[in-house]
Amino acid sequence: MLARITLASALCLALFAADKDVEAVIARRNYWAFKAPISTRGPGTIDGFIREALRAKGLHPSPPASREQLLRRVTLDLTGLPPTPGEIDLYLADPSPAAYERVVDRLLASPHYGERWALRWLDVVRYADTNGYELDAERPHAWRYRDYVIRSFNTGKPFDRFVKEQIAGDELFPGDRDALIATGFHRVGPIHIVGGVKDEEADRQEVLTEMTGAIGSVFLGLTVGCARCHNHKFDPILQSDYYRLQAVFASAEAKDVNLHTAEEKAAHELEMKAYESRLAPIKKQLAEIEKPYMDSLTAHRKEKIERRFLDALNTPPDKRTEAQKALAKDAEKQVKPMWDELVEALSAADREKRAGLRTQMHAIELTKPLPLAAAFATMSGEKAPVTHILRVGDVKHKIAPVEPGLPVVFETNGIETPATAAGRRAALADWLASARHPLTARVMVNRIWQFRMGTGIVRTPNDFGVLGERPSNQNLLDFLATEFVASGWSVKAIDRALVLSNAYRQSTAGSLTMAKIDPDNRLYWRMNRKRMEAETIRDNVLAASGSLNGRLAGPPVRVPIEQEVYDLIFTEGERDGLWPVHPDKSEHSRRSLYLLNKRGVRLPMMAAFDQPDAMTSCPVRQASTHALQALSLFNSDFMQEQSAAFAGRLTRECAGEAGCEVRRAYKLALGRTPKPAEAGFATAFFQGARRSGGTLADFCLALLNRNEFVYVP
Q1: What are phi and psi of 110, to 5 degrees?
Q2: Percentage of residues of the chain with pLDDT beyond 70
Q3: How far is residue 671's CA from residue 662's CA, in Å, rounded to a whole number?
Q4: By C-alpha distance, which of 584, 586, 683, 695 is closest to 646?
Q5: Which of 504, 371, 451, 408 is nearest to 61 (CA)?
Q6: Separation between Cα atoms, residue 626 and residue 273, nearest integer Å
Q7: Contacts of 658 (CB under 8 A, 6+ apart)
Q8: Quick check: 240 and 249 in contact, CB under 8 A?
Q9: How far, in Å, are 179, 251, 383, 426 from residue 420 at the CA level?
Q10: What is the sign, positive or negative, of the torsion defined by CA atoms of 681, 687, 691, 695?
Q11: What would you measure as the largest C-alpha separation in the chain, in angstroms?
């Protein structure tokens, strides 16, 4: 499908960019990021490249971390969960040199490995369960993309296949259910859907902008979106490049594709009938209570609207003119009472009766059958509208049409576009997943390195361009990229090599002498200390308390939210039932990855610990420090409940054994045994607790608030 620039395409390019611009872009192909990675004959191992770079600066590696620290580090890094006391004891009792390697292989085979990776991948692709913006409506089938990502990392799916499925699974692998679900990649970003008058052309352009920008940030590691309004000011990307890339998606259509069978549909219809029959009597009673009040309020509102609206409303629908139809539609909105008006008008007796019925209604609504299975997918339509270069990105100011293609700076300059609309994304996918592509492998191994080591070799993971940071060790980056491709694009293979390296196993302890030479640890003379993500902190609290529900996959879960947050979100009208909490309380203790990810609502703990809003790609999470974090970990209802559950777990498992509660609490929360001084402090606390009223739950809460708890050692 790929083709070199032809004379015709070169002439086409000349229409949109001056010859000198194209020549200038081609001349910049020697920039490191646009040349295919070549593995040097250097040291040949991760540690060899690290030592070579350190020696050049007069540095040396730090001592290894303790066995307890290393076990907690690698377990948190590969699964996002802490090691269990049994796993700690087993590892510490194994003197074999291969003990750590066996731990790594066990963790790589864990189903939680895919969950851990999914959290980071979904950050980059800006996944959420809702659309964002004003309405922030839910997407009932989007979660299948999240589960697809988890499955892909768990099964060790080759990354080139992973790329192809997301870009063009419908075209390259027809009939493959997973590949169809994967195309949800193009839809997981925010979409601006509003009521009222719509500009379909502008809305479509906004969708195409999201699709095009995602290719740049996620796979190319380039800010291609900067070329939407003009030639990129810093990188060799022309405005025509941007729109040729956008043309690849001209025929792409968002579709929820049915995945259910005829038998499943018939069963679902029966379930829905039963559900509606349970709901109907309640709705009927509510309507009977509300009708006289609604009629009265509507009549009162009719008295206040303009005569032309009232005349249009009173005209039979089949006799209305086009103008009257528009007026009548507007009038219906004007005369319809607001919910707060209705509630205020109700008598005390009717208000109480209605409230009871609504409580029953919401309880029944929680039993509504899930929608029939469908893929949140993207597919090629029958036609591909012509794509134009837009003046300053404005869809109303078209300059000239373009054909689909790739940025000129890359050696493979064009996509051979099929005669039909289908096949454009397939060609793009094949190019991105090519072993000779200069960026795809580099960008992904840099993400793997950043995930495990705390910072990327390129510290701007979504920007390998001129304004991004240069690699701190390009030889190492290229070595990893070529090894990645040679391994069959295996993420697990790179992960395994990295966590088995001495560089990963170093202590986080600093050295003033070396810090003066390399204060930012660009050369990795020690291990970076990493704070857990918001979701990982919550998951580890649940794991320590013994409350964690480890079930994988499934629709997103709504958990209770603080009343203050509820009041902030739902400020108008009747609010009861607008946040229906999952009726099964055990579901409230699922991993945070499975909680409803609503762009417009951040749970307080998640917001405090820098969970991204999923409106833009987040390649690196911020790690702020402020008072609200301590308040969340000390005072929230969630932490109070989990501390009590933690205490209950210790009481059950220790059964009165002297000193057991303190030892086990430290292993569960911090992955180690307490130091003598810590054991002494705990003993003093419990002795004083008899006089002060302190409890085991207070001790557990304090332990979960330790700085050590929220940091990966």
Answers
A1: -70, 140
A2: 95
A3: 12
A4: 695
A5: 504
A6: 52
A7: none
A8: no
A9: 21, 10, 7, 12
A10: positive
A11: 90
